[in-house]
Amino acid sequence: MKKTKSDYVYVGVQVLLFALYMIPVSALSFSNHIILSVLGMLLLVLGIVMGFISMLQLNTNLTPFPTPVSGSKLIEVGFYKYIRHPIYTSILMVLFGYGMHEASGYKLLVTLALLLLFFFKSTYEEQKLSIRFPKYVDYKKRTGRFFPKLFSN
Predict the structure, then answer these.
(1) Within 10 A of 54 (CB to CB), how many other CB atoms are there?
(2) Which spans are transmembrane here (predicted)?
């Protein structure tokens, strides 16, 4: 499928949010407890592992753009058996975990903005995937967007 202007806008905003996350802002810092710090690091490590495995599972289908690559296949194994967008989930886990560890309200706010972006980006992506893969609609019914579904429809 051919990339559209929307593909570049989504990726551009994503890169901008990543850059904003990196800015050291202390204005919204909060008092950190050791438990929050440790939980944050645990979330960060789990996110890194999940992201790495998810990228390996996606293999040649991997692209930062929401439009699927030409010749791609629908992946329904590994993390993709339970979650439609595990790479987005892993990025959010890493950034949220680090924000907790650093006790940075600023980083947590940027992560929330990224969650909002990922919601809209994944909605757009799923429209494209539904066109590319007719069985995507059924796949969508049995998997969660960012987290596994607890209850089936």
Answers:
(1) 21
(2) 7-28, 34-56, 106-124
